Each structure stands twice: as structure tokens, then as C-alpha cells.
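Title: Comparing notes on inverse folding

I've been comparing how different people in this forum approach sequence design from structure. To keep things fair, I'm posting one structure and asking everyone to reply with a full sequence. Here's the target:
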């Protein structure tokens, strides 16, 4: 039986006061199992960022629950939240968020060293992940000496280094050219297929989404449909495009 990592129950998010309220999420139910690779797509304003912000504990819902490790993480104390963010969740942001004053290897190792793991073990794990992400020759460099693709693959290593329960990625290829985007997605796909990461990624881009195993389409604060990949990524990509077209939406615009 598959292990549940995150369970989202009837998530509702309203912004603003009653007379000028925006209903950004209108009751989202979603279960994320271990080793899932989910892409969330949808038109601008459909609630993707709101959902990701609540799942990743950056924002609180108006109603509903997000269960991780048998706890509703929307209702735990700030102290518990920091620990949860450090130990259980990895983040990949569109703009990398690496620290400029540290080498890539120190950036990658940072979450482990903050957890008191020995320098030797930090370096071993950093080297191993760095090699999986094609960064072996770049670990001693500072972020300004790296390409966008190298920085983002470094950010992915940093997200993975604590073996978190889940990785949340917010438009991880958004700032990358297509080749660098593909390299990052290939690495994420491989590490997911090796059973080493559960990933939820928000993206506007059908090509990026086709690297996931399942795509959820949000529309107007609700999950409209789920598309699951068969064997072939190319065929999955075509199906994602077909669903976009049939919904009359062009997710790539705006
Ligand atoms: N802080 C806020 N205050 C008020 N309304 C907000 C706020 N943040 C988002 N909204 C509204 O909630 C709805 C969902 O926004 P959200 O940013 O989650 O959509 P999105 O799918 O991520 O859009 P995009 O693809 O353009 O980033 C939109 O109507 C937006 O205007």
C-alpha cells in the first residue's frame, strides 16, 4: 500500500473582507503519496500560488486542513513550524535563493549543518547529490560564477539534502532557458524514479508538467481534472495540451 505523505482536506482560502472577498480556493481535496511527482497547472489567478503557499506553510487557509506526519500543519505553533520546514519540507524557488557569500557546496550543505550533522557527513552527502545533478566541477564556486541552470540544480540538491518528506517547487524552470530547464527536470525525474523524492511542482509550462507522473489542473479555485502519465512523456505532453485546449484555456499566456 502506498504511504500518504500529505493529505489536503477541503482547503478554502478567501482573501479580503466580506464585501470585497476573493475566493482563491474553493474546497481542494488532494492526497499526495510517497514518491508521487505532481505538477499543478492552471490559468493565471486559478489559485496555484495560494495552494502552494498553504501546503508549504507560508500562508494559512480560511478553512480546511493539511495533514503531514499525522498533524494538521496549518494549526501548529511557529516553533514547530520552523522545525517542520527544516526537517520535513524542501523548497525550490523560481529564483534559486542561494546565499551569495557561500560556495555552492556550503549552500547545499547548509540545511544539514544547521541540523548539527558532522562536517564530514555534510560533505559526503553534498558530493553525492552534486554528482547526481552534474555539479561535481562546480561545488567550490560561488553563485555569481554559476549559470542559472547550475544554480537551480544546486538549489534542488539543497532541497533534497535533508531527505525531506516532500519537495515543493514553485515554477522551478521559470527563469531557465529550455536546455537548462530540461537538465533540471531530467534530474528531478531521475531522483523521483529512484524513489528518493516526492515532488509537487507548480508550473505554467506544459513541457515541464509532462515530466511529472500526474498533472492536476486548477481552475477558479477548484481541481478541474487530473491527468496521469502512461509510459511516454511525449504522449503525456500531447494529452496535457489537449486538455488545455478542450478547456478553452491557454495556460501559457499572461
Ligand atoms: N494577497 C492577496 N490578496 C487578495 N487577493 C489575492 C491575494 N493573493 C492572491 N489573490 C487572488 O486570489 C486568486 C488566486 O491567486 P493565485 O496567485 O493563487 O493564482 P495563480 O494561479 O498562482 O496565478 P498566477 O499564475 O498568475 O501566478 C486571484 O484572483 C488573486 O487575485
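Reply #1:
Here's my take.
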Amino acid at each position: 500500500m502506498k504511504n500518504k505523505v500529505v493529505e489536503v482536506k477541503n482547503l478554502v482560502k478567501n482573501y479580503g473582507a466580506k464585501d470585497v472577498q476573493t475566493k482563491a480556493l474553493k474546497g481542494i481535496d488532494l492526497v499526495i503519496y510517497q514518491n508521487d511527482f505532481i505538477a499543478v497547472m492552471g490559468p493565471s489567478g486559478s489559485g496555484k500560488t495560494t495552494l502552494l503557499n498553504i501546503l508549504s506553510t507560508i500562508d494559512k487557509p480560511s478553512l480546511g486542513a493539511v495533514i503531514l506526519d499525522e498533524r494538521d500543519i496549518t494549526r501548529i505553533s511557529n516553533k514547530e513550524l520552523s522545525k517542520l520546514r527544516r526537517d520535513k519540507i524542501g523548497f525550490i524557488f523560481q529564483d534559486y535563493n542561494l546565499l551569495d557569500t557561500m560556495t555552492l557546496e556550503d549552500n547545499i550543505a547548509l540545511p544539514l549543518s544547521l541540523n548539527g550533522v558532522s562536517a564530514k557527513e555534510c560533505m559526503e552527502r553534498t558530493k553525492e547529490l552534486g554528482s547526481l545533478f552534474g555539479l561535481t566541477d562546480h561545488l567550490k564556486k560561488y553563485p555569481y560564477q554559476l549559470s542559472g541552470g547550475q544554480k537551480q540544480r544546486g538549489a534542488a540538491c539543497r532541497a533534497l539534502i535533508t531527505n525531506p518528506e516532500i519537495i515543493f517547487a514553485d515554477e522551478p524552470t521559470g527563469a531557465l532557458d529550455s536546455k537548462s530547464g530540461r537538465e533540471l527536470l531530467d534530474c528531478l525525474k531521475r531522483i523521483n524514479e529512484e524513489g528518493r523524492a516526492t515532488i509537487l511542482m507548480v508550473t505554467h509550462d506544459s513541457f515541464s508538467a509532462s515530466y511529472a507522473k500526474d498533472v492536476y489542473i486548477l481552475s477558479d479555485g477548484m481541481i478541474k481534472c487530473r491527468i496521469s502519465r502512461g509510459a511516454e512523456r511525449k504522449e503525456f505532453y500531447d494529452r496535457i495540451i489537449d486538455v488545455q485546449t478542450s478547456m478553452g484555456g491557454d495556460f501559457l499566456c499572461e
